[in-house]
Amino acid sequence: MLKLQREFLQYMIRGSRLLVVLGIVGIMTFGSVLYVHAQCTPIKFKRGAYSASIESGIARGEHACYTLGASEGQTMEIIVSSLEQNAVFGLYGPHGGLITSDAANWRGRLLVSGNYKVDIGALRGGADYKLTVIIQ
Question: In 10 A of CB 36, how many CB atoms?
Fold first, then answer.
């Protein structure tokens, strides 16, 4: 089993993504794996603004990664929209824990200060999308 895991890790690292394993036991029992993209694009808010939007697209099988800093107690809202309604996102907290996945929108009060990661993918095919992040 360990040899198979090692080969899988080497395969994933070669595939332009760094694979972070959340514990050998986690991978053996639950398959808990977190993909961390080598380069995430920071979401920048204009001075005095509480929201920011990014329009982009991804090809089939690809993901887009964005980061943003936020503080404990703030409310964050994330909305991703696409023409075919096939763009979804995963939100990861500052310590790498999954907050939500396969979502088109999410809103919640932040319990921890730090850099959050938004990972956008498509349910089918590719997707042109608009990502909107609101922090209050």
Answer: 14
